[in-house]
Write a structure and sequence with these properties.
The protein has about 230 residues and is α/β, with parallel strands linked by helices. The protein has helices at about 30-40, 70-80, 80-85, 100-115, 125-135, 145-155, 170-185, 200-205, 205-215, 230, and strands spanning about 20, 30, 90-95, 120-125, 155-160, 190-195, 220-225.
């Protein structure tokens, strides 16, 4: 039984919820759900909250249901194989003009990932950089930079919104490279949105960062076109 008397269920249906599988030889083996719980414990302290505006987002409701079906089908295919994609470190890159639905689609992916029990960190770039700066002033007992960095780079899916909108400085590029390179080397997925295309983003954050993102999101770099839906509504 879990704390509070609530029975835990194994999301994989392979154990009794305890996190252990006892074989015919009476030897206990660790279940995948135990590894998932340990991973979630390690990532406490990162923001995994879907903003209120996007909590009802669904394939069956506007604005997603009224978007370009070709784009929506790419998103649907990605989440249909979400476990395989996250396990292989495959990401998704949504690019396009303001108001074309990039953030909505990205939030839909993150929402489904959270519902399926994957660990997710969700940050806009300005908010993430502000959060990193706060770790420098952390007092004793508070989360410092190294702890936050480890948790940020350990989640199954890192969702970065509006990449390229931040002011370019050496410090910003250093933070971006450290985070993305760590996830690149450890095979962990990234989900990002940007108003900039690949060439423009290279000019903003540098080719070595974009090169890694391109490989992590290979065949899943999705351009969105059209008018600003916010103004059209």
């Amino acid at each position: 039984m879990a704390r509070g008397g609530v029975e835990r269920m194994c999301p994989f249906g392979t154990c009794d919820g305890s996190g252990w599988i006892v074989g015919d030889d009476n030897v206990a083996r660790s279940c995948r759900c135990r590894e998932r719980r340990i991973a979630h414990a390690r990532t406490r302290g990162v923001d995994a909250v879907i903003p209120a505006k996007y909590r009802g987002v669904s394939f069956d409701r506007p604005p997603v249901s009224t978007m370009d079906r070709t784009v929506v089908d790419v998103i649907r295919q990605y989440v249909d194989d979400l476990g395989e994609n996250l396990g292989a470190g495959r990401g998704m890159w949504l690019m396009g003009n303001v108001g074309t639905g990039k953030t909505t689609l990205a939030m839909l992916i993150s929402k489904i990932a959270l519902e399926e029990g994957w660990s997710v960190a969700i940050y806009s770039m300005p908010r993430l950089l502000a959060r990193i700066r706060r770790t420098y002033d952390a007092e004793s007992g508070e989360q410092g930079y190294l702890e936050f960095f480890e948790r940020l780079t350990s989640v199954d899916l890192l969702h970065l919104d509006d990449l390229g909108a931040e002011k370019r400085t050496d410090w910003v590029l250093e933070q971006l490279y450290a985070i993305i390179n760590e996830r690149y080397e450890t095979g962990r997925s990234i989900l990002l949105t940007s108003n900039l295309d690949q060439v423009q983003l290279e000019e903003q954050i540098g080719p070595r960062i974009v090169s890694r993102l391109s490989e992590m999101c290979e065949h899943r770099m999705v351009p969105l076109h059209g008018e600003d839906m916010r103004l059209a509504g």
